[in-house]
Specification:
Length: 384
Amino acid sequence: MSSTLKSTLHPATLAAQANGLLDDGTGGVVPPIHPSTTFVRGEDYAPVVEGNVYSRSAAPNGRMVEGVLAQLEGAQDAMVFPSGMAAVAAVFRTLPSGATVLVQSQIYWGTTAWIRDFCTRRSITLIEVEASNSDVFAAACRAHKPALAWIETPSNPWLRIVDISACAQAVHAAKGVLVADMTTATPVLTRALDFGADIVMHSATKGLNGHSDVLAGALSAADEGSEMWQAIRMDRDMAGAVLGPFEAWLLLRGMRTLPLRVERMSSNAQTLAEYLSDHPAVEAVLYPGLPTHVGHELAQQQMKGGFGPLLSFVVKGEAKAALAAVARLKLFHRATSLGGVESLVEHRHTIEPHTGIPEGLLRLSVGIEDGGDLMDDLGQALGQ
Ligand code: PLP
């Protein structure tokens, strides 16, 4: 009964219908959870269901969510992992010792910290560059000929916008592979493979799942036959960084409403960014949807239908004033993470004090609540 939907359908249709998945056993409109770790073989010793042997190599719920994600990304193949960082690690583990990698500076701190440590241990040369400057990025590619380049757009928490096509051209000219962390944008706003990236990475913990109740990661590939993709598949299979069936099922359920949630989060974030831009207690607002943002024009070309849930702003009066405002917020939860239905606020300088984050910077993950209620909450916290 289940059938794959036409790839020409719009993301809202593909997501809401989970790419045509049904419960074949009962006719239910929701696919079941398959907890089995092992699968029987027939008398001829062939697997009774092709591909189902042992769930570390391939598991039904993982495959379901991978199928839907590949459709949304326009990818040939996708793989899910037990966290976003497990997906990051799966990519870097394919590199041989002695390789050179180019990584965008000032991206998600957890990614930077892990990559630095990994590259040191593996004798991999790590070059960090400001990738939102395409000329600087291209010059670094020419000079260092990296095997892999890693970008994140919009970046977390600086909201820098990187020209994916320009980066892809520069890395490909150096015979390297471009991987883009598109966690903030999700495939609803940007399909990075369409702009020339080879692999897209997501912390599926964030917008893809959207309900702050699953830790997961994902990779999607333009070319499933590529050497790197095959190496990642073998590494996941053998080293075992697999997503459990319940988490995969929950992730698929979350993804059914992805386009709707992204639309609402983006329009709320846009409203708040405009409101904060005019607020006397605010020094600066970082949001690519604002015409004053340095990457606005590029974001308009790369992001379709909005600019995402992530927005940072700098409160006048440094850390003291920022933390006082945070303490007064009633609707925004004081918690890390992003892309969930509920709005969150974070004082990043407390988390990463030595990375140049302004002391007054607050990062918002804007949820799907009523935009007016969120604005009122920020207003009372900042002092109208
Ligand atoms: N990439 C980005 C942009 C993130 O924001 C995060 C987490 O905050 C990660 C990767 C890591 O994902 P996870 O926390 O699911 O391991």
